[in-house]
Structures are given as C-alpha cells and as structure tokens.
Queue: 2 jobs
Job 1
Amino acid sequence: MNTKINFAGIEMKNPVTVASGTFGYGREYSEFYDLGKLGAVITKGTSLKPRPGNKPTRVYETTGGMINSIGLQNPGVEYFASYDLPFLRKFDTKVIVNACGSSVEEYVELCKILNTLDIDGVELNLSCPNVKAGCLAFGTTYDGVKGITSAVRKVLDKPLIVKLTPNVTDITQTAKGAENAGADAVSLINTLLAMKIDINTKKPVLANNTGGLSGPAIKPVAVRMVYQVSKAVKIPIMGLGGIVNGEDAIEFMLAGASTVSIGCGNFINPYTAVETINGIEAYMKKHNIEDIKDIIGKVEMN
Amino acid sequence: MPKQVYTKLVKKEKLLDDLYKFSVEAKEIVDIAKPGNFLEIRINENLDPFLRRPISIYNLNKEKGILEFIFQVKGKGTQLLSKKEEGDFIDIIGPLGSGTFKLEEYKNIAILGGGIGIFPLYELAKEAKQDGINVNMYIEFRNKNLVVLEKEFEEKSSKLTITTDDGSYKNSGFAIQYLERDLNENKLDAIYACGPLPMLRAAKKLAEERNIPCQLSLEEKMGCGLGVCLGCAVKTANSPVDNPQYIHVCKAGPVFDSKLVEI
C-alpha cells in the first residue's frame, strides 16, 4: 500500500498534516507521539516580528466546534529559527512554515528569511479573519491574492502553498489568483468569520466580538469548496476544516484534496492526526486501493 | 509530561445539587501531579460538546493511585459529565500546567479560597501540612447551604476560618477580611489564592502592599489546555498599554506569582 505523496514538491510519507495554529511548533504534541508519523507539520502563523495577539476572551466553544480570535500571537521568525526549527528538525517529518504579515513588504521580508532556513515549504496565510490587514487587504480578491503571491514568489524558491479564506463570494477566484501567480498549491479552508452572543450579558463572548469558526461544524462547507477549487485550478489542494478521523479525510480527498490537515481536532484528542492516518489506511485496505493517489478527486457527482 | 488515560470512575459523590466529586483510577497522573495542576476531561465521544473541560485536581491519593476532582454543573458539558455513573470510563489528560503552587521554604502560610476555587487548594494544604508548615486557611461561601467539605479542610489546615457572604454560617463577610485581620497580628510568609476574580485582585493587592509573596490560580477560557492554541491569555504585569503582552493560563499557569500578571 502506498500512502506517499508529492505535494507541491514536498515528498510526504502520508497525506496527513496538522493545521497552523492548532499544533504550536510541535513541542506539546511530541509528548504524546513521534511527530515523524506525520506527513508534515505546519507551524503556528509566524510573522517577521513577534506579535502579542488579541485581548482575551480569545476562544469559545460553539456547537460542533469553536470560535477563536487569537490574533496570530507568535514569537517572530527569528525566535522560530533559533529555537523551534532545530526542535522540529529532530523528527522525520516535513516542516512547513505558516507565514503571516500585514503588508506586502512584510511578507516579502519574511519570505526572504524563510528562504534561507532549513524548511520544506511555506504556507502563505492570507486568510486570518482576526487580523484586519492580513485578510481584507490580500486574501479576498483575485488581484489581492495574485499580487502578494507574485511578490513572495520572486523571493521564495521553496514550495509555496497559499491558504485561502472561505469568507468570499467565490473561492475559485482567489484560488486562480494564487495559481496564476505561481503558487505550487493551495490550502483551504481557513476559519469562517463568526460570532457568538451571551444572551445574559448581551455581549459577544469574544473580546474581539467576532472570530473564526472551526471544527466539524464547518466540514461540509470546506468539502464543497475543495471540490469547487479542484475543478477550477490545476495545482494540488490541501483540504482542511473539521477533520477528526480517517473518514473525514477520505471525504476531502474524494472531493479533490491531495493532502489534508487536522485542525482543532487535535484539541479534543491529541492522537487525532495519527488516528486519521490509520483510518485512511483502513479505508484503502477495505476498498482494495493500492495507491493513495487513486482516491484524489474520485467523487462521482450525481 | 501529561498523560492521556481512559479510566474508570470508581466513586461518585454528590456534594450539593450541582456539585460532584469524582474519584478515578489514574496512577500515571497521580504519580507526577503537583498541587495546582489541572485536568482536561473529554465529555463523550461525540463532537458536541466539542472541547474538553478543564477541571482542577482536588486530591491526589498517591498510595492508591486515585485521582479526585470536584466540578460544578455549569453548562452542557458538566451536565453530561455529572450523568456518568460508577464503573463508566472517562477520558482524562493530565496533569496540565507548569505553574503549580510552590511551598518554597515557608513556615507560616495563608491559603485563601472562594466558591469552587477552594477545591484546588486542598492538595496544597495537605502537602503543606505534611511538610510541617503552619497552614492558615480562609474559605468563603455565598451562604450556609453551599458550605462543603468543612471537615476535610479542617483536617488539612492548622487553623480554618470559614466565612459566608450573608453571615448565615460561621463568620460573616469576605474571607480576605479575616486573613487581613490575622496578618495585622502575625507575620505570614506567603498567600495562596484561588477563587472569584475580585477575591484574587484583593489578595494580590494585599500581598503587594505588605510585600508578601502571593501565588494565584487563574482561570480563562481554554481551547486545548496544552499551550498550543494560545486561547487562555492573561496580561503580564507592567506590559505597555499600547502593546499588551500575554502569557497563557494552561501552560505557564494556572498558578502565577501575583507580581507577574495583571488581573
């Protein structure tokens, strides 16, 4: 049985990765299992300079998921390079850095630095709903995504994945923007902009009022968007949004994703990513599928 | 290093209408847990409620490997948890948090608790007393009907002061008033507190005015409980107003030196 896949030029031992912002820089979950089991680790969104993040309350549970407004708190790329990267490199897995910024110049500066590091790829975060400049300016239009992806592409030789927001009218447009600017792949979806109100205080529960919805509640939206994007672009797709087991992962792959990412599913069970890998293998065995590539995009539409 | 255990509920006790004490077999956790650590408990295998529930540790029975925790029914998650029966299995991750209560070389300490905040203080008092430390304990309840585990706390303290907000049992008023009164007469080496935010703020203020070390156990909404999602942020003391800095209750805490945080 072959579960290996070349995704955007990155040779992964299996298609299962962990999503940015739900896995830190790997340390915490390495206490539960060998990170070498994963196809890749995608780091916490990392910026040029440290970011303190938003005022609490930052997270809140909702039906079948959660909303968050962390605000991209991170220690900055310098700290990452000297402290977290050497740690992650101890494991036999690929390291993809989720890169975030608030101006084209900042993204370019950051990616120049990332290009010099011993990492396997960059995921461009153009879609965080909790940081104004990060999403509204770049992530929601064809021109916005194309512009910033082109600028980054010029300084980055490593595999480039562009992460797309679902908070748009037509996600195939932003996907095309990434493809036409030379991205190697797209990942989708980021969180859906959401709000929860405490009916007793009459205030939104998050200090930032709105936040990004993630978890199984958003999975059908994500699967639909992966399918649409797979029909619109030729570059491969990393699918994510509410995956908690192998069956969920298979659904994304049938819809057209080549790889998948486990997000807040990590929170409810630290072993979710590992169990997802096992679940994919069990499905392949049951359906006599020799090669993982034979699942990708094999949905049969009515 | 935290462990995940899937373990049996061996004893369930209803302390009040909405307050339960669970005892579970969890030697792996009990062996390494310290006073102040907490647990993340999965309510069920379904996806709703989605997140685990952070719950503090009440007692560590090191000889028998039994872990005890007490929780109040507040919402859907704790409601479902309270329906578990003896013999049922529970998925628990723990011990969590690197910031735990530290006894240092103190000889005479004050432990201050309010409401459900008293429970994580039990193991602290127990270990302090075992170490021969003089434990002055002050615990506060809203009223007589909510007073629980008086005998247990009495056993683990050198002197126990119970207060009720409405004066319906023992002393009337806030527990910290009694702590402050005693402090005027005797020197204390440290204050430990867990309870409602106004109580913690008062403890921090009092300790800093009198220049006494103070350790606070804090609460904030959590996503993962492991230090990954960075949800449970608390502002660090003296951080600039226009550029506030945060640390996280689940990883750096839940117990903090009062001088390190702004609450």
Note: Chain A is about 35% helix and 20% strand.
Job 2
Amino acid sequence: MKAKSKFAAVPYLVWMLIFILVPLGMVIFFGFTTTGGEFTFDNFTGIVKYAHVFWKSIYLSVIATLICLVLGFPLGFLMSRMSEVGQRTMLMLIMLPMWMSFLLRTYGWMTLLENEGLINKFLELFGIGPFTMINTQGAVVLGMVYNYLPFAIMPLHSIMVKIDKSVIEAAQDLGANGFHVLIKVLIPLSIPGIITAITMVFVPSVSTFIISRMLGGGQNMLIGDLIEQQFLGSVYNPNVGSSMSLILMVIILIIMGIINHFDDEEMEGMLV
Amino acid sequence: MKKSRIGSWIYIVLCMIFLYAPILVLIVFSFNESKSRAFFTGFTFKWYQQLFENELIMTSLFNSLLIALLASVISAVVGTMAAVGISKFGKRARGVIMNVTYLPVLNPEIVTGISMMLLFVYFKNLFGFRLGFGTVLVAHITFCLPYVILNVLPKLRQMDQSLFEAALDLGCNPLLAFFKVVIPQIMPGITAGFLMAFTISLDDFVVTYFTSGSGFKMLPVTIYSMVKKKVNPQINALSTIIFLIVLALLVIMNVVEARRAKRLKQN
C-alpha cells in the first residue's frame, strides 16, 4: 500500500517537469544562444548598455524595501500587542486592499499624484505647489511600498506575536530604555520575520514592470520593463529577454544570499 | 504611557489612510457625473450602467471566473494526490520535489510568465495551435498547484497514521479508507489550498499577460489595457464593486472564524 500511494504524486511530478523545469531550461538555453540556436555570450555582453536600468531597479527596490520595513515594523509590533479580536480586525484591514487587483489600486494612485490630481488640488488650497509627483522615481518607490507593504507587515506581525511581554519588561527592569529594547530585544528576536518581509517586498519590486510603467512614465524603465519589451514589445527578441531574466534571477539570488548570511551571523551573535 | 498610546493610534490611522486613500478616491469618483478625476460635479450611476453593458469586461470577467474555478479545482485534486504521494517519499527525494514545488512561489512572476511563454510558443510552432484558453489554464494550474500542496502536506503530517490502519484492520479497502478516513482529516488543508488557488488565479496579471495571446481576454489584462488609456470612470465603478465583494467575503470569513474560535473555547 505504502509503495503504491507514491504513484499518486506521478501526475504532479510529470506536470512540474513539463511546465516548470522544461520552461526554465528553455530560458537558460535561449539566454545562451542566437536566434539560429548557436551558442553565444552576445546576449549578455549586449545587455551592458542597459546596466543603468539594472542599477536603478536594484536601487529603487532596496529603498522601497527599507521603507516597508521602517513603516511595517512599528505597525507589526503595535498589532502584536492587541487583543485577539483587534489583531484579527487589523489583519483584515491590511489584507483587504491586497485582494483588489493591484492594477486598480495603482490606478488610484495615478489619480492622486497627477499634476491636476487630488493631492495637488488639496495643496493648492494652502497656496502650496503644484508639485510634479507622477512620472518620477519617487512615485515608482511609492507604488512599490504601497503594493507590497502588507507583505512586510504580515510576517513581522506573526513573528512579533511570539515575543513574550515579559521579555520586554525584563529588559526594561534591567534599565534598558525604549531604544535599547528595540535594538537589543525586538529586532534580534524578529530577524526571521524581517528576512521574510525583505524577500516578500524586494523580489516583486525588483521584477515589476507595471508599477514603473503606470507611475514612472516612460523615463523610469526597470528590469521588468526591459524583459517585457523583449517578449511582447516592439523589439521581439526572446534570446536577449531570456538572458536578462537570468541576470534578474542571479541578482535576486545574490541579494537573498547576503541577507541569509546576515541571519546566520545574528544567530551566532545571539549565542555568544 | 497614555501619550504613547495616543501616538500609536495616530500611527495606525495614518497607515490605514495610506492603504485606503487610493481605493477611497476610486470609489468616490465612480459616482462622479463628469470624467474629471479632481472635481466632483454631481452624483450618477451611469458608469455602473456602462460597465454592465461593456461586453469586453463582462466576457473577461466570465473567462477569469471560469479559469479560476477550473484551475483551482484541478489543482486541488492533483495537488492533494501529489501531497499524499510526496509524504510517502524518502527524505532526500522529498527535499528535491519540495524545492521544485517552491520554484513558482519564489521565482519572480515575470520569469514564470516568460518561461511558460517560451514553451507555449515552441509548442505552437510545432503543433500549430493558438495561445488562449488552454495555455492560460495550464499556466494557472501550474502556479496554483504549489499552494494546494503546501496547505495539504502539514495536515497529512499532523494526521494520526493509526486511524488509517485501524480502518484497514476493520476491513476497509485502502481506497475506501482513504476517502472515508484520510480525506475528512485533511479537508481543512484542501479547502484552504483551493481558496488560495482560486483567489490567486483570479487576481493574477503577470503570468496571464504573457500566456494569453491576443484573442483570449482575461479580466486583469483587460483592466490593464483600460488603465493604459487613462481616463475611464468605468474602471472606478469596477473597483467599487470588487472592493465591496472582497469586503463582504472577508467579513463573512472572519465572523465564521471568530464563531468557531469561540465555540472551541467554550468546549
């Protein structure tokens, strides 16, 4: 019986082989070949002229990730100290916007940020502005923070629920002020949540192509936009697009590697 | 102490304003008489009427619901079978399979999208079919499956294996024992996985965008093409309706959950 029930996984395994592994293999194959199917490195060397786009993507998504952490950490902590009903209500309030298409919410921000938009109209009442907000790097970062902040709050909240009130009180009794409680107690105990939060915000931010297009106008292209153009845009070239995707995956692996390394060090530091 | 509590509430309220400001704007201007997105000129329901008369949106909505339903049902069945099988594998084989299972969850969506597009375009050139319903369904099943498996596996692990053996001892054949004993115990995991798969499928834009071709319309892709053209108050009306449905669903789910928790406590 035991041996037989293994076969229940066969349809899934075949499915994943054909639709996950083979396509990824094709990305690697296309990335290293010409349109004729010959081996080449040209796709990668050709990307050098887009280096600034790659840097900008990393730069903007790192900023967005940091802002999400700074905004999400206090909120996650405050939530973790609430009653059960309070926590459930807060989680619902935070998840609710997530369930709406992100395209619609980002469209809402377009309305707010426009030169003739509501924020500028509001500021006009006080005689300030108008400011150019849409089609700037700031707007792109705002879009990333807005769309992925809930992904940062949830892991932070779920890890901080586990921090016992008495641990914080003990630190305070031993003379730690608020800042020290934060640095020495709260942050070290929340490291796993922080790492999940970073992953959940950084990966979608660095690979987005819609937020940059909707809020960044034409002049704030990111990696995602470049890749999209190679597949569905005017410059159809799946070979170059594949090599760009490979670089994107490598960037994510490197950054995740750095962060996980930091995790290990923290753990060792805590043991000492 | 009191002061810091007021500070906390101000912070929470500010965060909520940030999260809900764009949604609120969409809702308010869905009732706006003119197309202006800055001035409210009068109350109207006409955008809602136009929305329901918009054939493109209605077809896209139907397609999205159909795909989400099919993809989540199929991945619930195949995923549950897979989880049962995977739990019987040895440690090393299970580790390899789980790593592959995590790939579509961890990979950036755009990479999943373009990799499948490469495969489908290759098949298309080979067999001569068109990107559309079939390719979208396959793509959605593929990224839904991991969520079912990741929800069902823990339930299988929690389950008491001796119950299944007891059923066998009492003369049940293995298949019947599976349906009578195992399935009821892992049902919460299957349901959670199914619901997750359904919502993720319904909301997915990126993978759908790369795998749907030009003829087959799905709601998120239609929304995107509408948003690109900027001013269209029908988008606002659509947002309002989606928001209300999501709100209602979440409230119902929370009430049900709260009641169950209460009952558990009383017992």
Note: The CA atoms of residues 32 and 41 of chain A lie 6 Å apart.
